[in-house]
Write a structure and sequence with these properties.
With 355 residues, the chain is an alpha/beta fold. The protein has 2 domains: 52 residues; 271 residues, sialyltransferase cstii, chain A (Alpha-Beta Complex), CATH 3.90.1480. The chain contains 13 helices and 9 strands. Strands 7-6-5-4-3-8-9 form a 7-stranded parallel sheet, with helices on both faces. Helix 8 crosses helix 10. The structure holds 2-acetamido-2-deoxy-beta-D-glucopyranose (3 copies). The site of one 2-acetamido-2-deoxy-beta-D-glucopyranose has 4 residues, from helix 2. It comes from Latimeria chalumnae.
């Protein structure tokens, strides 16, 4: 829509030149257009105001949310650096200026005690773990210009968003999603999370053959595979097994581990902003990291509801209809935050079709 307005502006200049040459008055045309864009600007401003000033609703009315989003789609989106920087300042405290988003040999040297995020447990870094860690932050090239964070919501099906997603400079994905829907979800992947539960369900925790797993990871090319290895006790062995499998087979993908101190502080930060859940979803962890690592962030595939913008049924994921484990995440409250951040110019939230 921003382009629509811009090109309309260009058209006005062109028309005005033409009309001037022809000695015809174009004044009324310009006035009508100015009045229209003035009205649109006011309406969009009011809508954004409505969406950001609201208290977080207890019960989400999906129909109303959908109406607001449809209206919002006719409004241009502009980044607001001042507000974005306020978010970044708070996020920077959790990540120590991104130096401890993930465990590295710098922030977890031999002898360092890793304190788990959730479990009341510590582990000392010894040689074998140390060797698995990257020498330094794998995000040395940040900030990336334009990032896409891709959730796995069913709303992505038939969205046609694949090309837009692949045009981003850095693409984040959640939980090893299938990529054979590239028209809708794209295929570029720079970082993908892997929950321990999917490694258990699909690959028996890598206790048996690891070849299938390694083969399947090839679709992610040279992506980083990010795991919360030191959040809960059971996750550590599985995450290390993933790292060893990739290493042993000479895979192009590398496993990295969230720094548990980052996740702990990030959890408190979002709790202070009203996200009350046992844990943040991996989607929100990635969105938070992207806000620090990228100049601009666009979200696709975030829509935790079973009806779409026009009331049509949508699947839980673009690739299946398995609902998330109830009571762990606060997906709808996370979504309302994304919508508010969109309205404030912090990130761009795409829901529905990409044109
Ligand atoms: C903003 O909210 C008010 C009160 O709910 C409503 O009357 C108005 O139509 C809303 N504005 C827009 C642009 O949606
Ligand atoms: C933050 O990172 C710097 C190095 O970049 C390090 O010297 C400092 O100790 C870190 N602070 C914390 C609280 O980890
Ligand atoms: C993607 O692969 C899955 C599993 O192999 C299959 O069921 C599905 O139909 C495929 N989807 C598309 C759009 O190719």
């Amino acid at each position: 829509m921003a382009f629509g307005v811009l090109s309309l502006g260009g058209l006005t200049v062109l028309l005005s030149l033409l009309l001037q040459y022809k000695n015809v008055s174009y004044k009324s045309f310009r006035e009508t257009e100015t009045k229209m864009s003035e009205e649109n600007r006011k309406r969009c401003g009011e809508l954004r105001e409505n969406l950001t000033s609201q208290e977080l609703p207890k019960e989400i009315d999906v129909g109303r949310l959908a109406e607001d989003i449809k209206k919002l789609r006719t409004c241009p989106w502009e980044q607001d650096f001042a507000v974005l920087n306020r978010y970044r300042t708070d996020l920077n405290k959790c990540s120590n200026l991104t130096q401890r988003l993930v465990l590295t040999r710098e922030n977890a040297p031999i002898g360092h005690e890793i304190e788990y995020e959730v479990a009341e447990q510590r582990v000392r870094v010894e040689e074998p773990l140390f060797k698995l860690l990257p020498r330094e932050s794998p995000f040395k090239k940040a900030p990336y210009k334009r990032c896409a964070v891709v959730g796995n919501a069913g709303i992505l099906l038939n969205s046609g968003c694949g090309r837009r997603i692949d045009q981003a400079d850095f693409v984040f994905r959640c939980n090893l999603p299938p990529l054979n829907y590239s028209k809708d979800v794209g295929s570029k992947t720079d970082l993908v999370t892997a929950n321990p539960s999917i490694i258990i369900q699909k690959y028996h925790g890598l206790k048996e053959s690891r070849r299938l797993f390694v083969e399947r990871m090839k679709v992610y090319k040279d992506a980083l595979i990010l795991m919360a290895a030191f959040s809960q006790s059971f996750a550590t062995e599985i995450s290390l097994a993933v790292a060893y499998a990739l290493e042993d087979f000479g895979s192009k993908q590398k496993a990295i581990f969230f720094h548990p101190a980052y996740l702990r502080q990030l959890g408190s930060l979002w709790r202070s902003w009203g996200v009350r859940a046992r844990r943040l979803s991996s989607g929100l962890m990635l969105v938070s990291a992207a806000l620090e690592l990228c100049d601009s962030v666009a979200l696709y595939g975030f829509w935790p509801f079973s009806t779409g913008l026009d009331g049509e049924a949508v699947l839980h994921h673009y690739y299946d209809n398995v609902p998330p484990e109830p009571g762990v995440h606060a997906m709808s409250s996370e979504f309302v935050h994304y919508l508010q951040m969109h309205s404030k110019g912090v990130l761009q939230l795409h829901v529905g079709k990409c044109l």
